[in-house]
Amino acid sequence: MKTFAHKKQQLYLILSGIFVVNALLAEIIGVKIFSVDALLGLPGNLTAGVLIWPVVFITTDIINEYFGREGVLRVSFLTVGLILYSFLVILATTKLPPAAFWLDVNKTDHDGRPFNIDFAYQSIFRQGLGIIIGSVVAFMVGQVLDATVFQALRRVTGSRLIWLRATGSTLISQLVDSFVVLFVAFYLFGNWTFQQVLSVANTNYWYKFAAAILLTPVLYLAHFLIDRYLGQEETTELQQEAAADVSV
């Protein structure tokens, strides 16, 4: 039979894995800006990375609930390190000389138009390097703010109103994150106007706002499954430790 310590360790490992992979994917695919109007008939544009970002902040809230602010910051710092490592590797690959046959077999697109696949590769991933600088800054500011606000609301609500501390912390932290990441990545290091930054940041934030509200049932479902997995008495103990910011 699994001990409580083992279950606790496994839970943190699973939640951390979900957190890391979605945060890393969001950084890599965030280079693409797509039209919400063309997709859904609604005004505005979104970064592709924002689509899976709700998974990150729901996981953040669950980790905070069971492992406290220190648990959130620990996996956040780990994620930043892995993101930086990933993009250093990607940067290194953009410096590699392309093989002649690779350029030749990819010299035209499907419509027969001239196409430089190495230029396309470098354009996408080197633009992502600008995004990563903004993302890392915004990510850490957002995570620290989210974890801090969550615990502040927890002191007020106790074990009640999970939705309030989860949604409240997310809405406050993402208000900062949504602007900072675009301002640094595309205004300071890119070629966007400040008005374009505000426009996309506004759409990104309201998407996150809606997602935070709509995914509240998922948050409660996750709590239900975790409580069953750990056991009621053990769950209460773990939440009390998290509220006191006891390390994992």
TrEMBL record:
Keyword Cell membrane recorded: yes
Top-rank taxon: Bacteria
Record field: transmembrane: 12-34, 46-63, 75-94, 129-150, 162-189, 209-226
Pfam families xref list: Vut_1
InterPro entries in UniProt: YhhQ
Compartments reported by the entry: Cell membrane
GO MF term set: transmembrane transporter activity
One Gene Ontology cellular component annotation held by this UniProt entry: plasma membrane
Keywords: Cell membrane, Membrane, Transmembrane, Transmembrane helix, Transport
Membrane topology, record value: Multi-pass membrane protein
Family: Belongs to the vitamin uptake transporter (VUT/ECF) (TC 2.A.88) family. Q precursor transporter subfamily.
UniProt function note: Involved in the import of queuosine (Q) precursors, required for Q precursor salvage.
UniProt name for this protein: Probable queuosine precursor transporter
